[in-house]
Write the structure tokens for this entry.
Amino acid sequence: MHEGTMKAWLESSQLAGGNATYIEALYEQYLDNPQSVNDEWRALFDSFPKVEGVSVETKHSDVREEFRETAKNPRRNHVVVQQGNSDVKQVKVLQLINAYRFRGHQHANLDPLGLWQQQRVRDLELAYHDLSQDDLEKTFNVGSLAVGQEKLPLKDIHSKLVKTYCGSVGAEYMYLTSTDEKRWLQQRLESVQCEPQLESEQKIKLYKELVAADGLEKYLASKFPGAKRFSLEGGDALIPMLKNLISRAGEQGTKEVVIGMAHRGRLNVLVNVLGKNPSVLFDEFAGKHDETLGSGDVKYHMGYSSDFATAGGNVHLALAFNPSHLEIVNPVVMGSVRARIDRRDCPDGTLALPITIHGDSAIAGQGVVQETFNLSQTRAYSVGGTVRIVVNNQVGFTTSNPEDTRSTQYCTDIAKMVQAPIFHVNSDDPEAVIFATQVALDFRNKFKRDVVIDLVCYRRHGHNEADEPSATQPLMYKKIKKHPVPRQIYAQQLISENVLAEQDAERAIEEYRSALDHGACVVEEWRSMMEHSVDWRPFLNHNWDIEYDKAIPIDELKRLAKSVSQYPDSVTPQSRVKKIYQDRFKMASGEKLLDWGFAETLAYADMVDNGTRIRLTGQDCGRGTFFHRHAFIYDQETAEPYMPLSHVSEDQGKIEIFDSVLSEEAVLAFEYGYATAEPKTLTIWEAQFGDFANGAQVVIDQFLCSGEQKWGRLCGLTLLLPHGYEGQGPEHSSARLERFLQLCADHNIQVCVPTTPAQVFNMLRRQAVRPMRRPLVVMSPKSLLRHPQAVSSLEELATGEFYNVIGEIDDIAADKVDRVVMCSGKVYYDLRDARAKNELENVAIIRIEQLYPFPQADMDKIMEQYQHVKEFVWCQEEPQNQGAWYCSQHHFRDVIPVGSTLQYVGRSASSSPAVGYLAVHNQQQKDLVHQALGLETE
């Protein structure tokens, strides 16, 4: 092998540093058994020069070192060639095939505008592999090239490679570690050179779908000039792509499809895919609004549901509602799909398909995309793979160029982290789009993994129709103004193929416009929705005070308590866990009062015993961040988990408890999506510390607290947010109670701060049993989990009553009280201890366990005995500008007697939630407790 050949080999992409470990492993495998590697690699390794004095039996570490030294100095003169010229040429042909599989996409014809400046890829040139024009007529073995023949002339091999990998589809998949997946993709792509086999009728249907995509945008532009619609123009192929995707999914057995997308093209998808009545859309443009629908939302945020006829039966479609926060809808979609496949008992995801549609800048720029990809193969969040479509406008949000929006060649490179194959496709070639769509869906259904379609297109207008894009993109928009729309390009192709007559092409345009004029549904596949597997009707139109079964027979509760405090003799628990379960058995037997962890466990036991499903996720939630839950007992001999809650009764409801990935935003969005699709499951997300909910604030603001008002979407998601000032510093004290209270309005959520095990038992049970589905936000405890006073009896649990307010429970005569302290949460126990220590009999303490909806009637009833009191105090641990004071003081003032005063007692306003020094914290806590009780402070 001469010096030039050696240098070319060393510089080829398959020997890039990123592949070194993989290649070394292959070489080890080859040394053990040459037949164990595929044809290309075996030929390559066979062609490797022999190193003097080294046989194949030599330790591979020596050979590897030899490779490294050779790579450093390709001119080392001890290398000799032992192969004949024809063998070397054969190897070079196989290298050429591999190069096209790795890098052909870099020379693919992907940009409809022809503006991409593709860098030269020398690996794709014949000369790079020491092949010349003289070799084109020579016949070579094609290796694993899926062309149906063992040998072909080089010119045919080369032309098939160019057609397959450098046409309108640019496929990236060679980074996949699964040989089966790579082989499958090679077979699908190479066997037809990325060309779909479409009949004339299919081509005409495809043309009509492009007519619809273009026709709706032009109709809206003429009927509502200047109105924002976030036009699809330029990316018209999205409509036939989606329709083909849904049809093919239905043929393969899918029953439900959930779609998530941002603004671009949303109105077009609503009308031309989901079958929304155009007249309804026109009314929205005209500003008409049904006053019964809450505050509503702009039309390009709205969702929709319908049925879509396919050869495999009707498929239920749901387009998810979403806010302007772009990519955040994607984990919501995945959560909704997970709920559907759980309900259908379909763990591999065959029966429900998530489709997420991204913008090119958003998929590269939004961190939640990485989080969502990371969820895709985990136990708690897998959905059998998501088909991800990028509407790639080649320009950022308003004016940005790609070099300002990402640090990678493609916007889709983020998908490589989960080894999702990526199909870049030129949107002006609709048949290539259909081919890429079919391969992508088939890959997802076979391998149950994510797959990405990068629809490379353009944006005919600015970010919105009032924008002037040529101000910042002059060259691109000069080209766009002259560029024919996809419908025109495809019409000319079909006319030239004698598939479509020119007058028929024009007639299709007229017929579509006429259908829009009539305002009726324009989607042939649309079907009215049939009843599906979940029925929301029992949960509609209820108020907070709706009656439900509350009390539980004490004997039933004791039975449940014993069942979840035991485990088989074959399970060997860790010593501390064993002690916890021994204590629980004593609690079940009435020997001890119940602590927090056991009361919560009993709530779940009661629910599953009555057929309710439970889903609990969060970081360390199986054990509990504070070593309190221990839903699983891990056998110390086998590490196998045993969950007593799964063994409550034979026909119990299913309970799933998963330790989540280290994410808040995507995980909470996923759980929101799950809860909006499954009202019969108690869905709970627990933050490791309440502060961590900060990372999911967009979900809380734009979905959880406002989804019902904007979109009419009910959701029974429960958030457990550990909260309490215990000297753990600014980041582990506050769950930001004030933020939730600020968002409270329209009876949208419940905000509770329970202080006893009986309260948490009945609060959780109420959330599941009461036929109303609104979010429950719980400021859950930390130190109270083991506080000696925070205990309850089985009888207290059996009442089934969650008390929104708990009045004075100690022997404090109401007529002697001249000061009433109102509070929530852990500070109650500090106040109570200080009152007892100082033998105060003139101060009553009232706990408000539910801050929203504020329990006005319950407070009025308790306050009846304190009408003579003039001094009322609201005491909180949080700084004055945080906690409940600013958002709830008007409620406190409303319940105290006329003429009395209300004083704030707590920490001073602060930009930080808490101090970082334990001594300072302790002094602050002592001072605020003493001040609330009317005692002297230091």
